[in-house]
Amino acid sequence: MTGIVIVGAGECGTRAALSAREAGFEGAITLFGQEGGMPYERPPLSKSDAGAVVRRAICTEDTLDKAGIEYRQNIAVTAISPETSRLSLSDGSDASYTRLLLATGASPRLLDCIGSEHAQVLRSYEDARAIFSKAVTGKSAVIIGAGLIGLELAASLRKLGMSACVLELGPRALGRAVPEILANRLVLRHRAEGVNFRFNCQIDAIASDHILLAGGECLPADLIIAAIGVTPETELARQAGLDCNNGICVDDQLRSSAPDIFAAGDCAALRRPDGTIQRFETWRNARDQGDLAGRNLAGAEARFSALPWFWSDQYDLGLQVVGDVSGAPSARRTISPDNDILFWLDADGRLIGAAGLGTGRSAAKDIALAERLIEAGVSSSSEVLSDCTHNLKFLLKCAKAA
Amino acid sequence: MPWIDACATDDIETEDLIRFDHDGRTFAIYRSPDDEFFCTDGLCTHEQVHLADGLVMDYEIECPKHNATFDYRTGEAKRAPACVNLNTYPVRTEGGRVLIEV
Lengths: 402, 102
Ligand SMILES: Cc1cc2nc3c(=O)[nH]c(=O)nc-3n(C[C@H](O)[C@H](O)[C@H](O)COP(=O)(O)OP(=O)(O)OC[C@H]3O[C@@H](n4cnc5c(N)ncnc54)[C@H](O)[C@@H]3O)c2cc1C
Ligand code: FES
Prior knowledge:
The complex is a heterodimer.
Chain A: E1 4-7, H1 11-22, E2 29-33, H2 61-66, E3 69-73, E4 77-81, E5 86-89, E6 94-96, E7 99-102, E8 106-108, H3 125-132, E9 140-144, H4 148-159, E10 163-167, H5 180-192, E11 196-198, E12 203-207, E13 210-213, E14 218-220, E15 223-226, E16 230-232, H6 235-239, E17 248-250, E18 261-263, E19 268-271, E20 277-278, H7 283-297, E21 309-314, E22 317-323, E23 331-336, E24 339-345, E25 351-359, H8 364-375, H9 382-386, H10 392-401
Parallel strand pairs in A: 1-2, 1-7, 2-3, 7-18, 9-10, 9-15, 10-11, 17-19
Antiparallel strand pairs in A: 4-5, 5-6, 8-16, 12-13, 13-14, 19-20, 21-22, 22-25, 23-24, 24-25
Chain B: E1 3-8, E2 16-22, E3 25-31, E4 37-41, E5 55-57, E6 60-62, E7 69-71, E8 88-89, E9 91-94, E10 97-101
Antiparallel strand pairs in B: 1-10, 2-3, 3-4, 4-8, 5-6, 6-7, 9-10
The complex binds flavin-adenine dinucleotide and FE2/S2 (inorganic) cluster.
Flavin-adenine dinucleotide binds at residues 7-13, 32-35, 42-43, 45-46, 76-77, 103-106, 122-123, 149, 233, 236, 265-266, 281-284, 286, 310-312 of chain A.
Keywords (chain B): 2Fe-2S, Iron, Iron-sulfur, Metal-binding
Cofactor (chain B): [2Fe-2S] cluster
Protein name (chain B): MocE family 2Fe-2S type ferredoxin
């Protein structure tokens, strides 16, 4: 086997395989996935508020067949030899590649307290089945970690009639990714739905039916979930001697430190031209980097520049975030009592980030426009952005005409 | 198939869309940058979210949920996660009204 080989049939690997073909690559494309079944989307797994866990395929078997992609499921790549361009496989055989993409994703971080094995994690369809099979009305769930997945699970389990308590080590929810104003709104909503929160909460030990907190308190629980973040899957890359630093290091063409080996998606740590390193854990990044990696595997030399973007759904609220939203926002546009858009400007007044939270998709159009304004490098002011009568599409048209 | 009077031409801004429900079905009606009118199914083919909250840029509609894009003139799915095209329906305008054949 020569040609393009992709390790990991998640969002990123699958997209890369299709994209390499779309880019006109005519040789063999092989996609290895250690999970069985058709590649599927992970985001619905934490949003299973109807009870049944959805396994939404990324594409049909037919799509892969028509694109001439050989999908080898239930096979893990166990070692890479960059010197010989060969791979070892879990079925004992080996394979060779001309160009290789590592799209190995990430794995849930595990707690390091006594009894941590009693806490379920959520990454795969099987994980979701194990969790939701225990979602019984009237029973109690304790979720460790007030991140996006923890809060989505809290919402889903509440809707299924479980009680839900969220334990968070830090002082607030969604500390890493979501602006505080919007995180607070989400927590308020969770509280109104009956979810309990414990912040600054340290766990001593876990047993099958309870959690011991550092102060000595014992919390009974029928279902215990740990949603405390992920670590990138870099083991293969490290063993092969590739540079890794909280992810497989890649340049802006998604090339690793070894010739002909690329990495993309949750497992990749992207070094920007300015030297900063960024790793993303979002669905759209997996799609966008997969798309670009596929083209570059096929011979292009495209550079990655897509803006970070993610969404979350909790109850009937939709959150969308684009660009750089660190620090205090520069402007707040209140479109209705339950729909806020926040904007971030840099020191020169250029728009660099936006975040919106509203019922349904009410924030979506403004975030889509903000994304285009950021891409176009448009400058604005807090006054204009805070004022709903200033139409964002009009700003974009003016900028393009100028 | 019957022609249905859906809305006034002025009900839709240039380069925008509205939702139109008829007989238990839901549609999206678009007005292009050059003031032509088009009609597609209302729901995204990915997760059945209504496209009415989405953004129209040129001849594309971007789904408000996970930003799949479609060419609303042909219904063609242009960007993942959508891989199934939208159905499109004939449109004509008459005396300031938009009629769709569904
Ligand atoms: C429950 C949940 C909800 C989420 N919700 C959202 C959301 O609402 N919005 C959002 O933006 N993002 C969300 N995400 C994040 C998003 O799903 C991920 O960013 C995305 O899946 C990353 O894609 P990936 O292909 O890089 O990695 P993965 O999806 O992890 O895929 C990697 C694949 O590679 C396989 N693999 C690894 N090593 C090997 C090997 N050696 N050999 C063969 N196969 C291998 C793995 O088994 C896996 O199937 C969510 C994630 C989860 C888990
Ligand atoms: S529902 Fe339209 S892109 Fe997902």
